[in-house]
Specification:
85 residues, 5 helices, mainly alpha
């Protein structure tokens, strides 16, 4: 460890919200607050099973599985940043 504080190398917190991933998460959370935890859980299942296996199990396309994965990641990112503010 270099002795630097944990946040010494981080950009200003406002810069963390100026990303596409944050915007996707914020948009989804604002529009569908009741679905956030379900999408995060589905994204975790995709990570655990693999995208092809998850898509096959759910009877969906790889594109749909990828969109679910990205949305879940965006929601986790948004919650992590918004919760820290």
């Amino acid at each position: 460890m270099s002795g630097r504080s944990a946040d010494a190398g981080l950009a200003h917190p406002d810069a963390l919200t100026d990303t596409g991933l944050y915007a996707i998460g914020a948009y989804f959370a604002d529009r569908h607050p009741d679905l956030c935890e379900d999408v995060i859980a589905e994204a975790q299942a995709i990570e655990d099973l693999g995208i092809e296996a998850w898509a096959r199990r759910e009877g969906t396309t790889l594109e749909s599985a990828f969109q679910t994965l990205v949305t879940g990641l965006a929601l986790r990112y948004y919650k992590a940043i918004a919760g820290a503010r």
